[in-house]
Design a protein that fits this description.
This protein is α/β, with parallel strands linked by helices. It has eleven helices and eleven strands. 47% of the residues lie in helices and 18% in strands. A hairpin with a 2-residue loop joins strand 3 and strand 4. Bound molecules: adenosine monophosphate, fe (iii) ion (FE) (2 copies) and zinc ion (ZN).
């Protein structure tokens, strides 16, 4: 029994609809799936319905854009109340920032003699959490670049002409927001960020878990973060971070998190619920 706890749909920068993504999960015989779209939970309702129809356990989640000491880091939230007013209010702010950022990136491209229009990006993105991949796809579609790699290399990467930083909240705010919505807060793909020195502080701020298994983690990375998990008593998660097709096939199914880790997440969530209800009574 396996799970994939890091997945994106077209509600952010993935290309699959929730139903298509669940179709792939079903083909790979996943027992559980979590949806972790960037700065939104909008796809969770449909994904939950699609999972239920094929007997896959669904965990509503998100991947929030946060920072600590100006290092960008992504905080995954699991088992969220997707109707939490505080969470939804923050999502609106994130999404406003993301939409304004598209105009700014397009203006910078225009200043570099690339006459892309913001409407082209919005039409293609067709979601409230647009990001750089949508700009990249629009550049390719309009023939200004031949591939996404080229779009990122020439224009979209940090230190490239069209790079615009994103709206971020502090890591502490992200963790609190996730807790407030009844969720567990997990540090995403630490192997990509290489900010290991921040882990103790994140733990002090209430971090519940760490994503040890990820498509871009080497075996050494995974072991390194499993050691951190043991040292700081963190829950262990993992997922493919699938955004759709990547180099000829979807990443989903590439990272198979043993279901025992999901059981541990659920046990922690149940303990929190119990604590809350005993505090109320
Ligand atoms: P954003 O959230 O708008 O800053 O965009 C970040 C997203 O861009 C990541 O979640 C990836 O999906 C994608 N991404 C980052 N670097 C690349 C790259 N070199 N090629 C294609 N996609 C990328
Ligand atoms: Fe992404
Ligand atoms: Fe991420
Ligand atoms: Zn992701």
């Amino acid at each position: 029994m396996f799970a994939d706890l890091h997945l994106h749909t077209s509600f952010s920068d993935g290309t699959y609809s929730p139903e298509e993504l669940v179709g792939h999960g079903h083909r790979y015989r996943l027992t559980a799936m979590a949806l972790t779209d960037h700065d939104t939970v909008e796809g969770c309702e449909r994904m939950g319905v699609a999972c239920k129809a094929v007997g896959i356990e669904f965990i509503p989640g998100t991947e929030l854009t946060a920072e600590l000491y100006s290092d960008e880091l992504h905080v995954l939230g699991y088992f969220l109340d997707i109707h939490s007013p505080k969470l939804l209010a923050e999502i609106v702010k994130f999404q406003q920032g993301r939409q304004e950022r598209i105009y700014e990136m397009v203006a910078r491209l225009n200043a570099h003699k690339i006459p892309l229009k913001a409407e082209d990006v919005f039409k293609l993105a067709n979601c409230r959490s647009p990001g750089r991949p949508h700009v990249g796809r629009a550049l390719v579609k309009a023939g200004f670049c031949t591939s996404m790699d080229e779009a990122f290399e020439r224009f979209l990467k940090r230190n490239r002409p069209a790079y615009v930083p994103k709206t971020k909240i502090s890591a502490v705010q992200a963790i609190d927001l996730i807790h407030d919505a009844g969720g567990l807060a997990v540090m995403a793909h630490p192997g990509l960020n290489r900010t290991d020195e921040l882990i103790p502080q994140l733990v002090d701020s209430g971090l519940d878990g760490i994503e040890c298994f990820h498509s871009k983690h080497s075996a050494t990375d995974s072991q390194r973060y499993l050691n951190f998990a043991t040292k700081f008593n963190l829950l262990v998660t993992g997922g493919s971070d699938c955004h759709g097709m990547s180099k000829g096939k979807p990443l989903i199914g590439g990272v198979k998190l043993p279901y025992d880790y999901v059981k541990k997440l659920k046990a922690r969530k149940a303990a929190i619920n119990q604590q809350k209800s005993s505090l109320k009574s």
